[in-house]
Amino acid sequence: MSQNAQGFSFKVLTINTHKGFSASNRRFILPELRDAVRATAADIVFLQEVMGTHETHPLRVENWPDTPHYEFLADTMWNDYAYGRNAVYPEGDHGNAVLSRFPIVEYQNLDISVEGTEKRGMLHCKLRVPDRDITLHVVCVHLGLRDAHRSAQLDMMCDMLQALPADAPVVVAGDFNDWQQRASQRLQRCAGLDEVFSRKNGKPARTFPAGFPLLRLDRIYVRNASASHPQALPRKPWSHLSDHAPLAVEIHL
């Protein structure tokens, strides 16, 4: 976070936490993931597939935290956090979360599931920018695996984004599962969003699988803001902490 006469800047990170397990599901790596996320010094963190509660994992998984995973990750670094519970099953639940150094004044989790498919959500938070009369809107998303479902979910995203104040700064980030690269054009046309890696390199970053990224699944979009230094974080240590490479960027208001 930095502040000067020209404006206000902050760092954003997005990562699919894979429910706290390694890409192979063989190891519980949440404590290592917390250290790695803290080391980025991000001001706002977008999390997908983050665990809320689970009844049986604490009985058999060593180092399982007493708190929900998003609280464990927030720890003392991010005072404010919001969780959107999407998938609910007999043992527990998981969803999206936002960790923030700035006050979250309001949030809502919008159900963008398509009937008969895995539950998906869109977590919309309103943040108060320090020492400025500005509300920052951040949206953490995780879209479906099938093209038709993503298309319907993008329509729902467009409706929500079009309802936001036209001059408000907006950051949308998460796992779009958009291997066909259709989302950016839709979101630019309907909501004026720009993808930060595409602005610089012409295409979104390769993020999946983390060990040898081929597919461009994860995104960071902005509106009424500029961005600099977009980067997909290096394989070490990240490739054994998630199946998706995390993305980071500096955003300027």
Describe the secondary structure blueprint for this structure:
Layout: E1 2-3, E2 8-16, H1 30-39, E3 44-54, H2 57-60, H3 69-74, E4 80-89, E5 92-100, E6 104-111, E7 121-128, E8 135-142, H4 147-162, E9 170-175, H5 183-191, E10 194-195, H6 196-201, E11 218-223, E12 226-232, H7 235-238, E13 247-252
Question: What does this protein structure show overall?
Answer:
The protein is an alpha+beta fold and 253 residues long. It has a single domain (2-252), classed as Deoxyribonuclease I, Chain A. It has helices at residues 30-39, 57-60, 69-74, 147-162, 183-191, 196-201, 235-238; strands at 2-3, 8-16, 44-54, 80-89, 92-100, 104-111, 121-128, 135-142, 170-175, 194-195, 218-223, 226-232, 247-252. The strands form two sheets. Strands 1, 2, 3, 4, 5, 12 and 13 form a seven-stranded mixed beta sheet that branches. The chain has a six-stranded mixed beta sheet with strand order 6-7-8-9-11-10. Strand 8 (135-142), helix 4 and strand 9 (170-175) form a beta-alpha-beta unit. Helix 4 (147-162) runs parallel beside helix 5 (183-191). The longest helix is centred in the middle third of the chain and has 16 residues, at 147-162. It is globular, with a radius of gyration of 17 Å.
CATH architecture: 4-Layer Sandwich
Shape: globular
Helical element count? 7
Order of helices and strands: EEHEHHEEEEEHEHEHEEHE
Q: Could you list the spans in which at least 5 consecutive residues all have pLDDT below 50?
A: none
- Spatial separation of the terminal alpha carbons: 11 Å
Beta-strand residue fraction: 35-45%
Mean pLDDT value: 93
Number of domains: 1
Major β-sheet, in short? Answer: 7 strands, mixed
Overall radius of gyration: 17 Å
Helicity range: 10-25%
